[in-house]
Each structure stands twice: as structure tokens, then as C-alpha cells.
Design brief:
With 115 residues, the protein is mainly beta. The chain has one helix at 95-98, and strands spanning 10-16, 31-36, 52-61, 80-82, 99-102. Strands 1, 2, 3, 4 and 5 form a five-stranded antiparallel beta sheet that branches. The longest helix has 4 residues, at 95-98.
Length: 115
């Protein structure tokens, strides 16, 4: 993850499996990793049991309250991003636009935060 606007709080990475209906759903993730932010970028490492299709979401929890904060009208007030740097337009991206394939061995996904 790159592009944090300030060094504060943590970065929360959320990994989703191959079920499109679970993507961004409450309790739909298969793993979460919170990293204390020490610079404007951060790395997380997930170990998955099988190669396959996955998706990632990330947010900059600047106030460290473990919630993705939104304004009174529902707009994000903290930075966020998705695998493939999937675009957001009037809502979150689809699973299809954020998915990526994990192959045996090391796999790397780079995401940029949006504010």
C-alpha cells in the first residue's frame, strides 16, 4: 500500500476469498491484518491455503478506532484502496474489478490509497 497522506494510526488490510457475494460484506473476509503506520507506505503478508482468486481492500485508520469512518452523508473520511487499484464511482468497486489470481509462491499486490 502506498500514498498515506500522514503518518498516523494504522493501515487495515482485509483479504477476501473467491466468493463475489462476500466481497466487502460484513463478516465476509477471510483475514484481516492491521499494521501500525510508520511511513507513507505499508506492507502486509497473508498466507493462503490454496492458489486461487482473491481480492484485497485497505483503509487508513488515521484515528486508530478500528472503523472505516465516513462523513454524515456517507462519504469516506479516511483513505481507502482496493486490489488492482479498482476504481470507485458512486460506490465501492465490484469483486470482478478488484480480484486477482494467487499462484504458488510469492505474490505481490500494490494498492494506492485514495482520499
Amino acid at each position: 500500500m502506498t500514498g498515506a497522506r500522514r503518518v498516523a494510526g494504522n493501515i487495515t488490510f482485509t483479504l477476501y476469498g473467491s466468493r463475489p457475494t462476500a466481497f466487502l460484506a460484513h463478516n465476509g473476509s477471510i483475514a484481516i491484518d492491521r499494521i501500525t503506520l510508520a511511513g507513507t507506505s505499508a506492507d502486509a503478508c497473508f498466507v493462503v491455503s490454496t492458489p486461487g482468486i482473491y481480492a484485497l481492500a485497505v483503509y487508513h485508520d488515521e484515528n486508530n478506532n478500528h472503523h472505516f469512518d465516513r462523513s454524515a452523508i456517507g462519504l469516506p473520511v479516511e483513505g481507502y484502496g482496493f486490489s488492482n487499484n479498482a476504481a470507485t464511482f458512486l460506490g465501492p468497486p465490484s469483486f470482478a474489478s478488484a480480484r486477482f489470481t494467487v499462484k504458488p509462491g510469492d505474490n505481490h499486490v500494490t494498492m494506492r490509497l485514495r482520499y
